[in-house]
């Protein structure tokens, strides 16, 4: 499969149904919605428009599967299924990557790179499946009393996924579910539903029992129904802070467990002693990768005053070389943003920044001309003369827009970096070990990348501080989010 592969060979059926209980089924209402290619506006598929009644059907089937043969599988059996799934995902990665490129607009050169991470995640969680264990605990109760703990699957999990990394999120949300013996009802973003459906089919092919992994496609009302459903034991959500707050409210009446990975306004901090040959392209990639549609994007760039002008000049020149275009072209580095609504939102931030007095150093407009007019392309945009109180310095834009600042001292930049309601990611560029450790301790964020940016690994936790959410994904911390701890007391007298 290559960039010239006909879309019809990737999306064989124009009508795409949900996957519930191991079967492709239409919405009970019969309704459908369109998903379109953001690079061309072309119709990709008419997708089942699931609602509350479809969520209820999926949850009931997930509950039945939780109490069925799946609950009696040994850890090694679940592990073997997950290892087969990892192989299948890798074998079918060209198809999965193409689906995400068509649905999201991310360059094929980028979506193809996700193969290693997806396989690694599934194999990591497969390993975790056999490591789940309780503890024998001493106690001071009178008599001869034994106390120990059991670790049990939390139950039926509802996953609500964002649109900015569709297949990656399907894998990330499913891994701990399968490792712990839970079951899943997954609601992918309406903008990018296609790869989640294909992933669920691969789960069945790998031997995951019917009803363990279910995908309900639909709009926000389906996500709301999942969040409030009384028979869902946990919600795992990745997305905007505003929606995350609504999900927490919806989950509160039934006291279900919730983990949320939300928005960010991450600082990327360059000290005068940094290796600029590495820091300049990394600063561009930190914000422009995936057209800026990454929650931990380094959208606030702080550069120490003594090198500020030189750094910004080099950054602007480097960013001019970034190729924006057809996501199926292997030379393309940035594709379109996901939708017209997202494009208009980003452009409104750009217009507002100029109105507040920020100086555009690069870009600042929709990319127009032959090959671009039908899609949602925005030029890589850099603003200087930004103050900390400006809207673009405070709000998550979720587009290819960078705000640049200068600073003088460590204490100053730590205070300014932390002067945000978010706390997801951060970057520090320095050759001084003391500076690196001081910044790592001082920044209030879930990840601090030193002399790198956006590094992720299946064994290392990822998540946010403050309004960027709570809970961690990846690492053993992730598995714990899907387990209940039961205390067992046995009187031996």
TrEMBL record:
Keyword Nucleotide-binding: no
Coiled coil start-end: none
GO molecular function: betaine-aldehyde dehydrogenase (NAD+) activity
PROSITE patterns named among the record's database cross-references: ALDEHYDE_DEHYDR_CYS, ALDEHYDE_DEHYDR_GLU
EC number: 1.2.1.8
Pfam family, one: Aldedh
UniProt keyword terms in alphabetical order: Oxidation, Oxidoreductase, Plasmid
SUPFAM superfamilies referenced in this protein's UniProt entry, alphabetically: ALDH-like (SSF53720)
UniProt family annotation: Belongs to the aldehyde dehydrogenase family.
Listed name of the protein: NAD/NADP-dependent betaine aldehyde dehydrogenase
Organism: Croceibacterium atlanticum
Gene: betB_2
């Amino acid at each position: 499969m290559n960039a010239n592969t006909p879309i019809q060979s990737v999306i064989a059926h124009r009508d795409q149904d949900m996957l519930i209980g191991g079967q492709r089924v239409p919405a009970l209402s019969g309704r459908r919605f369109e998903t379109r290619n953001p690079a061309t506006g072309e119709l990709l598929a008419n997708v089942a428009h699931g609602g509350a009644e479809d969520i209820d059907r999926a949850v009931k089937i997930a509950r039945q599967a939780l109490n069925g043969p799946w609950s009696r599988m040994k850890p090694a059996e679940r592990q073997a299924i997950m290892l087969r799934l990892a192989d299948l995902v890798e074998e079918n990665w060209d198809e999965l990557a193409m689906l995400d490129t068509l649905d999201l607009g991310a360059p094929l050169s980028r979506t193809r790179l996700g193969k290693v991470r997806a396989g690694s995640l599934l194999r990591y969680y497969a390993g975790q499946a056999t490591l789940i264990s309780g503890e024998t605990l001493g106690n001071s109760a009178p008599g001869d009393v034994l106390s120990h703990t059991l670790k049990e699957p939390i139950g039926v999990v509802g996953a609500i996924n964002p649109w900015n990394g569709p297949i990656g999120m399907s894998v990330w949300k499913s891994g701990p579910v399968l490792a712990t013996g839970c079951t899943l009802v997954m609601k992918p973003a309406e903008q990018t539903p296609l790869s989640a459906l294909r992933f669920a089919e691969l789960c069945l092919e790998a031997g995951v029992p019917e009803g363990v992994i279910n995908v309900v496609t639909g709009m926000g009302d389906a996500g709301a129904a999942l969040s409030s459903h009384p028979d869902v034991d946990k919600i795992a959500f990745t997305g905007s802070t505003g929606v995350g707050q609504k999900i927490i409210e919806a989950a509160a009446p039934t006291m279900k467990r919730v983990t949320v990975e939300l928005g960010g306004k991450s600082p990327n901090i360059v000290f005068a002693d940094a290796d600029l040959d590495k820091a300049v392209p990394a600063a561009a990639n930190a914000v422009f990768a995936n057209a800026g549609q990454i929650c931990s994007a380094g959208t606030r760039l702080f550069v120490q005053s003594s090198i500020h002008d030189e750094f910004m000049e080099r950054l602007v020149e480097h960013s001019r070389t970034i190729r924006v275009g057809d996501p199926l072209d292997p030379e393309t580095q940035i594709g379109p943003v996901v939708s017209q609504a997202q494009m208009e939102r980003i452009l409104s931030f750009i217009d507002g920044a100029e109105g507040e007095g920020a100086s555009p150093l690069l870009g600042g407009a929709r990319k127009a001309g032959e090959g671009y007019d039908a899609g949602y392309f925005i030029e890589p945009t850099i603003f200087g003369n930004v103050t900390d109180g400006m809207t673009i310095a405070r709000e998550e834009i979720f587009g290819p827009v960078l705000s640049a600042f200068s600073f003088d001292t460590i204490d100053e930049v730590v205070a300014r970096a932390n002067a945000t309601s978010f706390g997801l990611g951060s970057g520090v560029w320095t050759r001084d070990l003391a500076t690196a450790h001081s910044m790592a301790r001082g920044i209030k964020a879930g990840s601090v990348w030193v002399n790198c940016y956006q590094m992720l690994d299946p064994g290392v936790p990822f998540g946010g501080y403050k309004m960027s959410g709570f809970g961690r994904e990846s690492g053993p911390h992730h598995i714990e989010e899907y387990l209940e701890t039961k205390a067992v007391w046995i009187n031996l007298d």
